[in-house]
Design brief:
Helix content: 25-40%
CATH class of the largest domain: Alpha Beta
Largest sheet: 9 strands, mixed
Shape: globular
Number of helices: 12
Strand content: 25-35%
Distance between the termini: 38 Å
C-alpha cells in the first residue's frame, strides 16, 4: 500500500469523521477552532484518489523560533492502526517536516490493556498492590502491543509519565461499555453506593435538564475550582467550545444542569462523536451535596449515550495508582463505582524531525515545568 498525505478542507475532514464509528472529538475539525492559541490544519491520507484517513494537527510554535512548530495530533490520527503503521506515519512525517515541524507528537487511539471494576477494587484493597500495571490484565490487545513496538523501533519516544498525566492527554482512562446493554444492566454493574445515590437524587426531587446557561455552569465550575484547588478555564473558552462543536453537529456537545428546588447543585458537559461519548467537565455545589446532583447528572448522560446508540461512555483520565495513601486514588474510586473498566492506551509519542530544535524545545519545557 502506497499512501500520500496532504491538506484537506474542514468539510472533507468532517465527512470522513462521519463515516467512522469512533473518532476522538480532539480529532474533529471543530476542535481546531477551539484551540485558538494553536494553528490548526486538517490532513488526509490518500490511497490513490480515495481518502482513507484523516487527522487534525495543532501546530505549537517554538519560543524565539516561530518558523518551527511541534505538530500535535491529540488522540489521533484516525487511521487504520491495525495495518502497517510505517506506511501511514512515514508520509505524515515527510509532509510535516517539509512544512516546518521540528517534531510530531501523537496519541494513537489504541488500547493495550483493560482491568475490570472488580479487579480494580481488589487491587485498591490489597496493600501489596500499588499500581494497575502490577496486576495481570484479563485482556491485552495485540494491536496495541504491536503499535507500541513499531513506534519504538521507528525512533518514536514515549511521553506518558509514570502517574498517567502529562502535558498532553492521559494514557489511562475509565470507560463504561454500552454496546448490547440495557439501563438495568448498567445499574447492576454499578456498586451499591452509586445505585443508592442515583435513587436518592430522584427521591429528593433533583431535576436534570439539558440547557444552554453556560454562565450558570461556569459560576459553579469556578466555585468547584476554588474548593478543589485547580485553575479554572475562563467562560470564553466554554463559549468557544460550544459554538464550534455545535456548529459542526448540533448533537456534538450538551450541557446538563441538575437543580434541587431551583438551586443549581451540579452541572456537566457531554461530548459525542459517532458511537463514543465523553464526560468532559463537571461542577458541583458544596451545599446540598447530600441530594447527589453529580450522580444524577452522570446517570442522565449515561442514559442519553445509551439511547443514542453509543458503544462506550468515557469518563476520561485516571492515574494508575491503587495506593490507598495516594491522593489520586479517590479519582479511580469514584469512577470504579460506575462499573466499567480501567483502560490503558498506547500513550503519547514524539518523533523528532529536527533533533537539535527538539532538544532545545524539550529543555525549555523542562525548565518551565512542562
Amino acid at each position: 500500500m502506497s499512501l500520500t498525505v496532504g491538506p484537506i478542507s474542514a468539510a472533507e475532514h468532517l465527512a470522513f469523521v462521519q463515516t467512522q464509528r469512533s473518532v476522538s472529538f480532539l480529532q474533529t475539525p471543530a476542535w481546531g477552532r477551539v484551540k485558538t492559541e494553536w494553528r490548526s490544519e486538517s490532513l488526509g491520507w490518500y490511497d490513490g484518489r480515495q481518502l482513507v484517513g484523516a487527522g487534525l494537527v495543532l501546530h505549537r510554535p517554538v519560543p524565539r523560533l516561530d518558523r518551527f512548530t511541534l505538530a500535535y495530533l491529540a488522540e489521533g490520527p484516525a487511521i487504520d492502526w491495525t495495518g502497517e503503521i510505517d506506511a501511514w506515519l512515514d508520509p505524515l512525517a515527510a509532509y510535516l517536516k517539509a512544512h516546518g515541524a521540528f517534531a510530531i507528537r501523537l496519541g494513537p487511539p489504541v488500547c493495550t490493556n483493560t482491568w475490570s471494576a472488580d479487579q480494580v477494587k481488589e487491587g485498591i484493597a490489597d496493600p501489596g498492590i500499588r499500581r494497575l500495571t502490577e496486576m495481570s490484565s484479563p485482556w491485552a490487545d495485540p494491536v496495541g502491543a504491536r503499535v507500541t513496538s513499531r513506534l519504538r523501533d521507528a525512533g518514536w519516544l514515549p511521553q506518558s509519565p509514570e502517574d498517567g498525566f502529562g502535558v498532553g492527554h492521559p494514557q489511562f482512562k475509565y470507560e463504561i461499555p454500552l454496546a448490547g446493554r440495557t439501563e438495568n444492566d448498567l445499574l447492576r454493574g454499578m456498586n451499591q453506593l452509586w445505585r443508592r445515590n442515583i435513587k436518592k437524587a430522584a427521591k429528593e426531587g433533583v431535576e436534570v435538564t439539558v440547557g444552554e446557561d453556560l454562565k450558570a455552569f461556569h459560576d459553579l465550575y469556578v466555585h468547584t475550582a476554588e474548593r478543589d484547588r485547580f485553575t479554572p478555564r475562563p467562560l470564553r473558552y466554554f463559549e468557544t467550545m460550544f459554538a464550534a462543536l455545535s456548529a459542526e453537529d448540533p448533537e456534538r456537545i450538551r450541557l446538563y444542569l441538575a437543580r434541587h428546588q431551583g438551586d443549581l447543585v451540579a452541572a456537566t458537559i457531554l461530548v459525542r462523536v459517532g458511537a463514543h461519548a465523553w464526560y468532559c467537565y463537571g461542577a458541583s455545589s458544596t451545599e446540598k451535596r447530600e441530594v447527589r446532583g453529580s450522580n444524577a447528572c452522570q446517570w442522565a448522560m449515561i442514559r442519553d449515550s445509551l439511547a443514542a446508540g453509543c458503544d462506550v461512555y468515557d469518563l476520561r483520565g485516571i492515574t494508575p495508582t491503587l495506593d490507598a495513601d495516594d491522593p489520586h486514588v479517590g479519582l479511580i474510586q469514584f469512577k470504579v463505582g460506575t462499573g466499567g473498566q480501567a483502560v490503558r492506551y498506547v500513550g503519547e509519542w514524539d518523533l523528532p524531525l529536527r533533533p537539535m530544535v527538539y532538544r532545545a524545545f524539550d529543555l525549555y519545557m523542562r525548565r518551565r515545568g512542562r
